[in-house]
Amino acid sequence: MIRKCLFPAAGYGTRFLPATKAMPKEMLPIVNKPLIQYAVEEARDAGLQHMAIVTGRGKRALEDHFDISYELEHQIRGTEKEKFLAGTRELIETCTFAYTRQVEMKGLGHAILSGRPLIGDEPFAVVLADDLCLNLQGDGVLAQMIKLYKKFRCSIVAIQEVPHDQTHKYGVIAGELISEGIYRVNSMVEKPAPEDAPSNLAIIGRYILTPDIFDLIADTQPGKGGEIQITDALMKQAQNGCVLAYKFEGLRFDCGGAEGYIDATNFCYEQLYLNGL
């Protein structure tokens, strides 16, 4: 079934400058754990063990985070601080990590295409680490989507309702409701103006993609902003077959901007950190 998760992590993080001038946005900490670790943990908890990370210049910290730091571990061995590395060490021991670089920033579609050598010819998940998704009452968002994939065997995008005046920030779908929270997509537009949006159902940073998406991306011309958009490739896939949109259970925080980042930090501190989770 699905074994691999792709993490596009080559972007500049311009909404969080100057903090991201020399530090990957995926390494921004939510309390004491970086966004990329939350993302990998979500994938691991969904049953995925092979993590493929698309990086860029200045992103070496991502690789170092999922590696053993012998000097640090030697210094804290036997102290109470050792427990803080237990989660990272578990990921290193139970998952494999592979990396490639997106040499030019040409959009999310191009970033996913850059990961093709790490994925091969099989279905895979995609997680955008700066979209922090949490569900304290059950399965994580990716685990929910993988259950759907086992039933429908097609590409799936996670969606949530957003205010109509915010549609210009997202890919937006319209479709036929086929079950509670599940839509068959018939229209998909990248960052439409509110008056042009087909709905207020916005795509967020969780995808299940079938491997034919790579050829569709390769044949996709640059769209809005001169970037190769994954929504354009998914629209082709929807026209030729089936793409589902899933209104997930749980919370999503947009940690690419200050407001969502602060909300996520407060929530995680109160609901997870203080409870030892």
Main attributes?
277 residues; alpha/beta; Spore Coat Polysaccharide Biosynthesis Protein SpsA, Chain A; five-stranded mixed barrel; two-stranded antiparallel ribbon; 10 helices; 32% helix
Strand content: 25-35%
Main beta-sheet annotation: 5 strands, mixed, barrel
Helix tally equals 10
Q: Might you state the CATH topology name?
A: Spore Coat Polysaccharide Biosynthesis Protein SpsA, Chain A
How many structural units, i.e. domains?
1
> What would you give as the CATH superfamily?
Spore Coat Polysaccharide Biosynthesis Protein SpsA, Chain A
Mind telling me the C-alpha Rg?
Answer: 18 Å
Global outline: globular
Return the CATH class: Alpha Beta
User: What string gives the helices and strands in order?
Assistant: EEEHEHHHEHHEEHEEEEHHEEH
Mean pLDDT: 93
Q: Which residue ranges are poorly predicted, with pLDDT under 50 across at least 5 consecutive positions?
A: none
What is the CATH architecture annotation? Alpha-Beta Complex
Amino-to-carboxy terminus distance: 30 Å
- Name the helicity range: 25-40%
Question: Strands of the biggest beta sheet: in what spatial order?
Answer: 8-11-9-10-12
Strand tally: 13
Structural class: alpha/beta
